[in-house]
Design a protein that fits this description.
It contains 7 helices and 9 strands, in the order βαβαββββαβαβαβαα. It has a single domain, classed as 3-Layer(aba) Sandwich (Rossmann fold), CATH 3.40.50.1580. It is an alpha/beta fold. Strands 1, 2, 3, 4, 5, 6, 7, 8 and 9 form a 9-stranded mixed beta sheet that branches. The radius of gyration is 16 Å and the shape is globular.
């Protein structure tokens, strides 16, 4: 297979340096993410992967838990299964959990939002790229895989500054984050927690590279 990989962040993409894959970051923005996934297909890839960190919906999930998902559930309720033979091969290479990923174009920022989404979907985690990857793969009849590592837990509320997010190239919107922090400095402890838990998730993702080898 010629594999194309879609991440949210450039830092996630860099974890895959040297492995010979074509990797793009979309910053969690719907249109750029879909365009980049389509461009990978137009360029000749024959399989797609969604790779990156995720927010837990299941209260049992902890920072650093690695997921190789069974399926992604879209906002309209459709459930798109990952390629099961590819998934089984990946699980032979690395220890990871299964489950459903909720693909959404906006973060679940509060405990209440996460709880409601968990009750609605049964998904173990949420991310902002997997649904786009799955839809593009389905449109072109290609297999896809989802590899995600948990950052924030189901009980964590994300501070507003953390939601300022990324540009369309997957790089931090530092100015917007700093402005939010300047306006509401009490966000700092929550922002530090997000950074520490994201670091834990990135370490798990580094281990998860083995699933693609």
């Amino acid at each position: 297979m010629s594999v194309g990989i879609i991440t949210g962040m450039q830092s996630e993409a860099k974890l895959l340096d040297g492995l010979g894959f074509i990797v793009v970051a979309g910053g969690g923005h719907p249109d750029p993410t879909r365009r980049k996934a389509e461009a990978l297909v137009a360029g000749g890839v024959t399989a797609l992967v969604s790779f990156g960190i995720a927010g837990a919906l299941d209260p049992e999930m902890e920072p650093g838990d690695l997921i190789i998902a069974d399926e992604v559930v879209l906002a309209d309720g459709r459930r798109l299964p990952c390629d099961q033979s590819w998934r089984q091969r990946a699980l032979q290479r690395v220890s990871a959990q299964g489950g459903t990923i909720a693909g959404r174009s906006a973060a679940a920022a509060t405990r209440a939002e996460k709880g409601a989404l968990f009750d609605e979907t049964g998904a173990v985690a949420i991310d902002m790229e997997s649904h786009h990857v799955a839809e593009v793969a389905l449109q072109h009849g290609l297999p896809f895989l989802i590899i995600r590592a948990i950052a924030d837990t189901a009980d964590d509320a994300l501070p507003e500054a953390a939601l300022k997010g990324l540009n369309e190239e997957g790089r931090p919107a530092i100015g917007a984050v700093l402005l939010s922090l300047l306006m509401k400095p009490w966000q700092l402890p929550g922002l530090i927690r997000v950074a520490l838990r994201s670091r834990t998730a990135m370490s798990a993702l580094l281990r998860g590279r083995a699933a693609l080898l």
